[in-house]
Amino acid sequence: IAEVEIAERAIKLEVGETYSLEIDRISEPVSWVPITLSSSNSSVVRTDGSYKVEGVGVGSATVTAYAEEAPSVSDTVEVTVVLPQILTVTDRTTPERGGKTEYSRGSVTLSFAGANNLEGLEVVFGGVPDGVRFEEQARGPDWRQDGYIVIYDVIAAKTARLGPSTVRVEATLGGRKHLGSVIIDVEPHQPAILVKSFSVGQRYADYPTISMRFEYLGEQAVENADISARCEEDGYDGLYTRFNGNVTRLVPERSGSVNLPYSSGFPYFTDNVVRCSFSARGAGESIRVEYSDD
Questions:
Q1: Which residues of 202-233 are buried (b: 16+ CB within 10 A; e: fewer)?
Q2: How many whole angstroms from its chain centre is CA 245?
Q3: Rounded Cα gap, residues 114 and 129, in angstroms
């Protein structure tokens, strides 16, 4: 035999996957020459007599094809074996806006390409930040490709650890182990003032006032919070009036009220609807302002 040639130069397999190599032989005179395969690491790649290679463990191995009558006539292919990967489709969660609810939600989708069903599926999430949990929300066929998907809600409490964290995902399906990871980025929970209502005082008089009722949704008390309002009356487009006031102490989950005296701008309101936007600062930082749906 003059030459043995493997068509593939390098292949990548998942654990449990098999692949049939394409092997050419050139012999003089032309005759059938048996070819044998061998693996440099049988714990990673296993070979058989039909030119098939199977990934059995994570790692790399060199597969050699040689002529039984002339072992020095050979060719090689590099085989890399990896664990099947879980595809993460969505992997971000942010805290609830305003802190009115205890938790916020994001989602993570795990995709198992080529799976026939999800019987016996076990999924473990490791390295999950404190205050974050995963709850299965739905499962079923993946219509985009052959296989199945499982969707998880990613639920973060207000007290969840901040910043991006890598969560390890380990799943067992059909006797095969799948590994993957997902980045969960829990953004900082910001204190907020929830504006419940406001009213205008001293209409038809110079220098009106604004009275505002609110609930403080932060987790820590704030001393000497400055509250501002920028208001415009319907029918007087572009004529703004500004108001400033101070709250001595904001107490978590407590309601309160504040009177905001006139500060600058157009000094007069009539009976038309007045629309205001509010802002707040405390301890040298801005405080988010949200508005009640009531």
A1: eeeeeebbbebebbbbbeeebeebebbbebbb
A2: 40
A3: 31
The token pair at 237 is 């487009």
Please check whether residue 77 is in contact with residue 9, taking contact to mean a CB–CB distance below 8 angstroms: yes
C-alpha 59/C-alpha 197 separation (Å) is: 64
Quote the CA–CA distance of 95 and 190 in Å, as a whole number. 9
Average pLDDT over residues 157-171: 74
What is the token pair recorded at 35?
């070819």
69-101 residue pLDDT tens = 788 888 999 999 876 655 443 444 444 433 334
Query: How many Cβ atoms sit within 10 Å of the Cβ of residue 191?
Result: 23
Query: Nearest to residue 171, comparing CAs of 57, 82, 85, 44?
Result: 85
DSSP H or E stretch at residue 223: strand 222-233
Pairwise CA distance, residues 258 & 230, whole Å: 15
Q: What are phi and psi of 144, to 5 degrees?
A: -80, -30
Nearest CA among 132, 136, 137 for reference residue 94: 132
DSSP, res 189: P
Q: Cα separation of 1 and 230, whole Å?
A: 91
Q: Residue type for 197, please?
A: S
Model confidence over 36-71: pLDDT tens digits?
Answer: 899 999 999 999 888 899 988 889 999 999 888 788
Place of tokens 């650890």: 161
Cis ω before 29 (30° cut-off from 0): yes
146 vs 137: CA distance, rounded Å? 21
Both tokens assigned to 166? 């890598």
Strand partners, 56: none
Distance CA 226, CA 207 (A): 19
